[in-house]
Write a structure and sequence with these properties.
The complex is a heterodimer of chains A (about 300) and B (about 270). With about 300 residues, chain A is an alpha/beta fold. Chain A has eight helices and 13 strands. The longest helix of chain B has 19 residues. The chains are: A alpha/beta (about 300), B alpha/beta (about 270).
Chain lengths: ~300, ~270
Amino acid sequence: MGIRLYREPELVEPIMFVGWPGIGNIGIIAVNTLKDTLRAEEFGEIESWDFFYPKRVVIKDGLLKSLDFPTNKFFYRRLENRDLIFFIGEEQPSDGGRIYASGEKAYQMANLVVDVGLRFGCRRVYTSGASVSLTHHQMKPRVCAVVSSEELIDHVKSYPNTVLMSELGGRGEGEGTITGLNGLLLAVAKKRGIEGICLMGEIPDWLSVASFPYPKASKSVLEVFSEILGIGIDLSPLDKMAEQIEEVVESIYAKFPPEMKEEYDQRRVMTQPEPGPITIQAQIYIDEHLKKGGEEGGERPA
Amino acid sequence: MERDRLEIHRTAQLKSPFLIVSWQTHDIGGLGSRVIDFLRKNLGGEEVAEIKPVGFFPLGGVRFRNDLVQVQESKFWTCGRRNLLLFRSDEPAFNHFRFLSTVLDFAQDCMGVRELYTISGALSLTAHTQPRRILTVFNRPDLRGELQAHGLEPMTWEGPPAISSYLLWVAGRRGLPGASLWPEIPFYLAAKEDPLTIKLVLSFLSRRFELGLNLEGFDSEIDDQNEKIARLRDEDPEIHRYISRLESGQSLDEEEQIKLTREIYDILS
């Protein structure tokens, strides 16, 4: 089980951005887009075979040519005033076929990512995911933040369009769980002396079970990343993807039964709607039209 | 090698043996289990070790089938006279790489294995009256000629890997040459047994490792099975038509495949 570095870039206190798949793939799309936009270079990986069953085998004329596993790769980029490390994990490792990471393997994976961060002098890590909330899909998704230390609270308050979890209605004192590795990594990083911030793009509750991504929220997260790094980021690829998804979402929304639509549309005028259970009618609709197989998970209201 | 994953029952001296592996999970046509059982019984196989289930199998309870408790097994046997190491196991549910590495840790580090063979059935649209091919996958190109000389046909495939391919890949990384044998089994015999294919595989192994196996016992099983299916064809024109189409290289739709499989299963039960 291990880390394989193809090269040892000289980096000064790099910031680390980490992404794994999750609800709406909000976090991984944001981190991956940032990595691609900055043309970060691959410099290492976590060997996959201890964590995953292979996805694909290639056998040609009898010879086993290759076995492909989900990848876990590190990238780096030196900006003028800041060095960056990116980690992109194609899948979350878990014991027992769950979608979100859990158990020993998840803990090992998180520690390996932190190992690389520490090796290059990383002092801060950003993870990203989804914040499932009672928002409306026509509203601009906010970015919800959870931090690993008191000192970071004021810092994230300076981010645009960003709220602390405690500022969202119905979550007590900002209580909840960040399911999977986008959350666990923060805990492991904190234990090992790296400060962490999780930035979660808002996604309407009913879309959190859809099988398609939610790039609109990724864009919100990416705008915050852009502000943090003080750089302009070309968001047009995300805009295009968001437009396509928006069409799908609008077509589903158009078929909402009238009472359900009326109830849902109240979210547009309420700044902090009181959270409550999804109505029976809405739940039936979601089950019939959107729900994908597998386990629910991700960042959910407490 | 992490010995705590293994329970070694006795030591055995083999001279760079061959390792033959089969899986009990999804054992199409009962092929892997029957082949290992036959070798074990006819070559005086002695149990030498097993892999402990902790960390590899769910241990929250026990499965049962036909009222019988099913216990996961991952056992090694030696056949000293023929220099073979046999391994039969359920497919692990977790930590596949660690499990496969443990298999090879024991095989290579404790037993000095020099070559690996895995055996699994491949579902086929061939009819039971037709000759079966043994498709093969190997992890070193120099094995191609040797295996083709035995009449094995190289496979081409891209897609999700079976555990045998995974084991072959792990073996390749450790420098252990190996091949997976994928004999064809008519799909409608998959839930029962296919003695013709079992005999075909044992026949290959007998030649390859000079085992001198007497396989005549399979002939009566093959005849018996063929007679039962022939009787069904006489009695049921639809079944006859389905099998005839397979014999002439045509396919069947899903409904027809299910009907044929069900009828054959019933007649052979």
